[in-house]
Amino acid sequence: MRRFFVETLAAIGGRQPLGEAAAHVHVLRLEVDTEVELFDGEGRRCRARLTGDDEAELLEELPRVRRTGPTLILGLAKPPATELSIRLATELGARALHFVFAKHSVPRSVGNKWLRFERIAREASRQSERTFVPRLMPPAPLRDVLARRSEHARGMYAWARGGALPERAHTDDWIAIGPEGGWSEEERQTFENASFEPISLGANVLRVPTAVAASLAVHGHLAARPDAK
């Protein structure tokens, strides 16, 4: 069954405008009466039937899925690296992405890219059959981002000279990946003051999207262990 993102879902039995999903329906040449799944990115999803006029009739509410997965902190990188990082983080199950203006961040703003970043997250969620679209938080100073973490959530930041990855993964973990050039000494001290642990992702220097993929893939593997919590 094809899946499409919509901003909000109407009541069961009602007509649902497809919005930007209508373009995908036309590209796929789906016919009237085709059944699809619609999801709002916040846990609600419904079985629906296409009715034409870029609308669908909502037939059945599907079981909700609890939002899980680690939270990612990303030092703002160049747009191509940031876009790929968003796509990979979405596919690999990140709960949210918090962007920071790091010392080595080359762009100092996202300009007109933010709407594109959000579209990439929605599309990656649809393609990877995620129920949730990860929340994207606009760039902010590192201290402000770290203050958002709850006290019981474990924090880790990637550093070439960091320690080994933890043996267990928690669903509320926070993982920080720096921009090209990595975290500065001052930023590492800020992490230490916030009780973030330094972790190494291997002996080689990784590009930002590769580091994002490596950290989340390992975290997902550890979270799948029977003793994970």
Query: How much strand content do the residues show?
Result: 25-35%
What oligomeric state do these chains adopt? single chain
- How many H/I helical runs? 6
Low-pLDDT windows of residues:
none
Computed over alpha carbons, the radius of gyration is 19 Å
Taken from the alpha-carbon principal axes, the silhouette is elongated
Secondary-structure-based class equals alpha/beta
**Mean pLDDT, rounded to whole units?**
89
Structural description of this entry:
With about 230 residues, this protein is α/β, with parallel strands linked by helices. The chain is built from 6 helices and 11 strands. A 6-stranded parallel sheet has the order 8-7-6-10-9-11. The protein has a 5-stranded mixed sheet with strand order 1-3-4-5-2. α2 (about 80-90) packs parallel to α3 and α2 (about 80-90) packs parallel to α6 (about 210-225). The longest helix has 16 residues, at about 210-225. It is elongated. The two termini are about 30 Å apart.
